[in-house]
Amino acid sequence: MGVGSPSAATPGEEPAPISVGTEFERLAVHDHRGAVRIEIAVRPRSSRSAVLGVREGALSVALRAAPAEGAANDELRALIAKCLEVRRGDVKIVLGASSRGKVIEVHGVTMAEARDRLARAKR
Questions:
Q1: pLDDT tens profile 74-98
Q2: DSSP letters for the chain
Q3: What is the CATH T-level fold of the domain 26-121, as seen in this structure?
Q4: pTM score
Q5: All structural domains of the chain with their residue ranges
């Protein structure tokens, strides 16, 4: 590779960051009986609620709410519904209601729409 080539990194230079599209292609999204299932890694008690990206195939999400009395789960459902442009009732936690690792099921979107909308929602 020649000097100035976009993929040539000089010593001491950091490689280019991974693009959002590539990052969300690694998101574990599965079709399940007409709904989409997404693996989620939750960080409760954060300074803001936001989609952070993809880590080890799971959607990384920060939530302001504490994991007490279902507050973080309610906030997660509201955040995902907003990001995916579906009703809150279309988002259900199917695994991990009491842990940081969860699986949610969403009705009303395809796998491609889910990846695209979550990528746009990343902060």
A1: 999 999 999 999 999 999 999 999 9
A2: --TT-TT---TTPPPPPPPHHHHHHTS-EEEETTEEEEEEEEE-S-SS-EEEEEETTEEEEE-SS-SSTTHHHHHHHHHHHHHHTS-GGGEEEEE-TTSSEEEEEESS--HHHHHHHHHHHB-
A3: Conserved Hypothetical Protein Mth637; Chain: A; (3.30.1200)
A4: 0.79
A5: 26-121
